[in-house]
Structures are given as structure tokens and as C-alpha cells.
Amino acid sequence: PALTDPPYLQGLNAPQRDAVLTTEGPVLILAGAGTGKTRALTSRLAHIIVTRLAWPSEVLAVTFTNKAAREMRHRMGAMLGDMVEGMPFLGTFHAIAARMLRKHAGLVGLQSNFNILDTDDQLRLLKQVQAEAGIEEKRWPAKGLAGLIDKWKNRGSRPDQLLPGDGRDYADGKAPALYARYQERLVQLNACDFGDLLLHMLTIFQQHPDVLSEYQRRFKYILVDEYQDTNVSQYLWLRLLAQERKNIACVGDDDQSIYSWRGAEVANILRFEKDFPGAKVIRLEQNYRSTPHILGAAGGLIGKNSGRLGKTLWTDRTHGDQVKVTGVWDGPEEARLVGDAAERLQRQGASLNDLAILVRAQFQTREFEDRFIAIGLPYKIVGGFRFYERAEIRDALAYFRVVVSPSDGLAFERIVNLPKRGLGDKAMAALHTLARVRDVPLSTAAAMLIETDELTPAARRSLATFVADLARWRGQLESLSHQDLARVIIEESGMVAMYQAQRSVEADGRLENLTELTRAMDEYESMQAFLEHVSLVMDNDQGDEAEYITIMTLHAAKGLEFDHVFLVGWEEGVFPSQRALDEGGNASLEEERRLAYVGITRAKKAATIFHAANRRIYGQWTSSIPSRFVSELPPDHVEVTTTMSGGPSLWRAALGSGQDPFADVGRATGRGPGWARATTVGTSGLPGRGPVLEARASAVSVGMKGRSDVSVGSRVFHSKFGYGAVTSIEGNKLEIEFEKAGAKRVLDSFVEVV
Ligand code: ATP
Ligand code: MG
């Protein structure tokens, strides 16, 4: 049939063709990663339009991200040429819902030019609503309420539809009333939040049968990608819209459901056949994306999850390397090796665009950014800000800047009321006027102003406290190490308390980022040197590079593919995340495992997993243990290496054989098994982290350079600090009195005995 096939059918396998050509009736395409689900869905869309089954405006096609929508539009354009003059209903749920709501806004009391609030606006409004109800923001942060409301909206619940007990834990059960009031206020403001877009349209569908049937008739065909990550509200939407014609095709993979924390329910897949009796279920089993080893590794890993629908995946490829698992010494080394690998691949003719680094949490990007800037490797952070551009980081940096240079007015302005110190517009105006009149920096003006009665007593008190804080921190510039001072400032400024009070998912990330910031400082001599580095980094405009390596979270990588994928930070507490470990249940761990599956299956040619033996957490060196996911990978598909002496056997052993994991090191280095020893200690006692099992190398560490015998009193050389004498040894950390640089704590692997 190949000769007569239209272009959009060419090359498709039999079940894919089936998925394209079965246009009438409900279809569920259930298949593993890389089997061409998205491709089949795109071809189906092309087929429907080319054969005039429907006009472009009569198809509802839902993608998970705007990027995916653009891609689908682009592919359609390539297939159909001018025929696709825009498709109004191709996009994300939110984009499509917003478009519809403009038309029907009146039905929910809005005008068609309603505003869509961003999260900041939303919080401001929630705070007002709380204040009005006399609920203390300190005790019940608005962020918490925002989270609850979001959850309800994802679930399709309006205030009058909440269940008994909903929100009981918040503000003595007042959350439902606050939710109702918030919705009222939104209408008064002619505004809605993100969750409302879907919920309002759902309400309209439910309460206005005429509108519903208009859309039911209009949408001759409905297509949904990444169906496993739809939430209840989206699911109800689809069910209503498809009820009339029932021409709905959903594609999904239960193993790639990774958004349950945002209300997604994988159960929607299971319900499909019930809601649409007679649905045709199509399974795609041939994977076109990855090599056999990549598939084998991913398959073995996801096999550890329970309650899966179960799918077969095969490929007719024969070549390809095993998935590499590399144990490295620490984070900087991880970044260095990824950078080296990228440059090597580039020399071999690969484009940087085919390379991606996938992280579990945003804070992990920092080490890579610093390294790539140092070696001039263009990179792009997708779906997030570059590390030093994130709000909380800029806030903390502003504190450091004011401490280091009191005349930095911009920085002063940024933080004078952050966290909130009750300094309103009046106080700020007085401050600015004084600074202008006396021609002094804002911080000097502040010191002067508190001696006067210009401000209200409350404002004066809090400004005085702030001025005193700054003075104290400045005094500590000499007495504390710059990392310690940074931690003191972050803590004492109230930033930590502010984020802790928010108890939201993002707040956790922000705290992690702040910790990462202090970690980054270790590589610099002083606060001043560090700030200088940061301004250089921030100035580093890589916006218009044509080729760059992508850094993104595993979540953002869903649906995408790259030739070479670097999966970094596979350590307990990083991935699986500490949050998942703390929750303790199997459900969160299984979701992390699905995330790992998504990560590995992004790779077309090669996947490399890294785990570091040491991470600096809260400024302390902590030995980390490899992620359990590493040991769950089927050995046949994996090649284990380590940059450390001792070789792969060290890590194999560390993965739970019960032997002394460091015994091999001694053997490999010819020093006998007692040379290095591992002890397992209990709770790490780190603030804010649950029990972390630490495999801690004791007595002697496994240094990259293969350490020489250091003892107290040894004279050593360090490439940055020069010559010095060891004054004490604690595990792998040495206190050294350097002849020029003074007392420093360094890692033994960075010194040589002379
Ligand atoms: P994911 O679960 O990760 O979203 P998917 O099932 O949507 O994956 P696609 O992204 O559609 O998979 O396809 C994966 C890769 O395989 C793409 O590069 C695609 O072009 C290619 N591909 C899909 N079907 C075929 C086919 N029949 N012949 C050759 N290549 C194909
Ligand atoms: Mg896809």
C-alpha cells in the first residue's frame, strides 16, 4: 500500500495505522514510552483534516504543554501545508479553556475581558480574604490556602460541592468559607485564577446544556495526549464533551504518570473503558526511540512497581551501549564529567541540541551552570530560571551585597521590606527623600532616619532592627567564614522562616536553592569574590546561541527525546527525593520510580546515570548513598564505573551485598582490606531532613588522587591555598593552618603530602 499511502501514514506500523484510521468511536492507545503514541496522534489529526472528516476548528486536540502544542502544530503544517490555518482548539487544557471562557464569561458572572491572575496576585487576594475573616496569616499562611483551593479545583469541586471534612486542618475548618469568599472577590474583580479556567467551563457545561451541546456538536473529534496525567476536572470535561459523538482518542502510559501531586489521576485510564463501553484499546509495542539496553534498563526498573497495567516493549535495533552508571566523588566532579562528555560528543560531531541533563530538583542545576560558564559551554535551562536569576537567590544575594557594600542602594531597596517588616510606602518615601536630600546611600539614610521621629513608632522600630542586623552582619565579615555568615544572614533575616511558613512544594525548592547558594560559596575565598563571580555569571548572556545543552527537570522532559541523556544526582534523598522518603508510603516512591522511567526513556542513543559519594548539605559534607533505583537496574543492561579507586566493585558492594563496601578499595590499592572501612550511622541529624542513612567512609577516605598518608602535623600542599600543616583530621576533612591563607577546612583529596 506504500505507493498510495498519504504522507501521514507512511512508515507507520500496523497498530499505529489502526490508531489513525479508527476515527469513529472511542479509542484508547495504551503504550509504553517511545512507541510512537504522539506520532500516531498527530497523524490521526492530519488524517481527519485531510480527508475532510472535520474542519480544523471542529477538532479538540489537547497536549500537555504549550511546547508540545507548538510542535504538533508545526508537524501538522509540514503535513498539510496551508490547510492548517491555525487550529483554535489545539493546545493545553488551560489555553483551550481560556479561549472558551472568553466567550461564555457572562455565565459565571465575569466579563469577557477578565483577568487571569498569576500566583502573586492570587496570594495577595487570598491574604485580603483571610484578613477580612480575621485569620492570622502568620499561623495560616495564604500559600497553604492556595494549595487547598488548587486541589479542590483540580478535582472539579466548587465551594458548594466540598465534602464534609474538606479543609478541616486549615484555620479551624474555615477553608471552605474562605474559598467561597475568594471566588466572590474574584468575580467582583472580574478575574479568575488558573484553576478557574477549567472549573468555570466545567460549571458552564454542567449548568448550561445548550452550551454543552453546542460544543458536543462542534467537536467531531477529540484527541488527548498524555492522558495518564489528566486530573479529575479535566477528565470530567472530556467525558462531557465526548458524550454525544464519542469520537475520542486518548493516548497514555500508566508508567509515565508523574503529576499526582498536581491532582492527576492515573485511574482515569482505567475508567476509560467503563465510561466509553466498546472502546477500542490499541497497544503499541514497538519502540522506535531507544536502544535495547536503554529499554531493558528502563523496563527492569519500572518492573519493580506494583499495580501496573503491564505492557510489552521491543525494538528491532541491535546496537547500542549499556546504560552507564558512574559513581563520582562529589557534585563538582559530576558537573565536570558531564561537561567533558558534552565536549567530547561535540568533537565527535554531535550537536549540543541533542544532549540533555535531567535533574530531579531545580537546585541541582547550579553546579552545572557554574561549570558550563567556566568552560564556555552554552546551555539552556528549560522550564525554570537560571539558578542565580531565581527570586529567592536574588533576594539572598541582595542581602550579601548590602552587607559587603553598604552603598548598594538597589540591593537595599530589594530587601528592606523582605520578609515583610511593616515598612510601607510612607516609610520608603521618607527614606528616599532623606537619601536624596543628604546625598547619602539608602542604608545611611536608614541609620539617620531611625534617630528621628519621621516614621511611625512601629516602622521606626522595625527599621532600627534591620539597621542593627546589617551592622551586626558587617561586623561578622571578619569573624565568620563567608559561608557561615551567609547561613547566618539567610536565617536571621527571616527568609528561612518565611519559606518554612509557606509549607508548599515550591517553598521546599526555594529553601533547597538557598542551601545550594551557600554551598556554591565554598569554592570562593570571600563573600566579595563570590559576589564578583555571580555578577559575571549573571552577565553571561547565552540567549542567542543556536546550539546548547538542555538542563531541565525530569517532569519537564516528559514526551521529549534526546540522543544523549545525563541523569544526575541519583542518590537517596535527592532521587528519590527526601520528600518522597519522608512521606514513607509506597505510592510516592512508585511515582519517583515512574519519574526515573520517564528519565531513562528520553534517551535515544545513550543514557548515563551519575551518583556522587559526597554532597554538601547545609554546608556539611555528607556521604550519600546511591539511589535505590541504581540497584534496581537490571545488571545486564548496565555498565558500572567509578572515578574513584576501588572501581565498580565498590559500588556494587555498596548497593547492599552486606559486605564491607570499602574493603575492595583497600584490596584494589594494595593496602589490604582494612585500609578503608565504611560504617553505617543512623539518623543524620540534619535540620529539616528525615532520617538519612549515611554510608560514611571512616578512618580513611577514598580520595580521587588516592590519598597519601596524612596525619596531624603533616606538611601538605593545596593548589589554591599553598603550603600548610595539618592541625586536625575528621573523616575526609582536614583542618589545615596554611602558611599564607590561614586556617581552612579542606578535603583530603585536594592536598598532597610534601
Ligand atoms: P512518549 O511516551 O515518551 O511520549 P511516544 O509514544 O509519544 O513517547 P513518539 O514521541 O511519538 O513516542 O515517538 C518516539 C520516536 O519514534 C520519535 O522519534 C518518532 O518520530 C519515532 N517513531 C514513531 N513511530 C515511528 C514509526 N512507525 N517508524 C519510525 N519511527 C517512528
Ligand atoms: Mg508522546
Description:
With 754 residues, the protein is an alpha/beta fold. Helix content is 44%, strand content 16%. The strands form five sheets. Strands 9, 10, 11, 12, 13, 14, 15 and 16 form an eight-stranded mixed β-sheet that branches. The protein has a six-stranded parallel β-sheet with strand order 3-2-6-7-1-8, with helices on both faces. A hairpin with a 3-residue loop joins strand 21 and strand 22. Helix 5 crosses helix 6. The protein is globular and about 80 Å long. The N and C termini lie far apart (77 Å). Residues 646-707 have low confidence and may be disordered. Magnesium ion binds at residues 37-38, 559.
Shape: globular
Bin the helical content.
40-55%
Q: Calculate Rg over CA atoms.
A: 29 Å
For the secondary structure, the number of strands is 23
Strand content: 15-25%
* Mean pLDDT across all amino acids: 84
* pLDDT < 50 stretches: 646-707
Strand count, sense and barrel status of the largest sheet are: 8 strands, mixed
Associated small molecules: adenosine-5'-triphosphate, magnesium ion
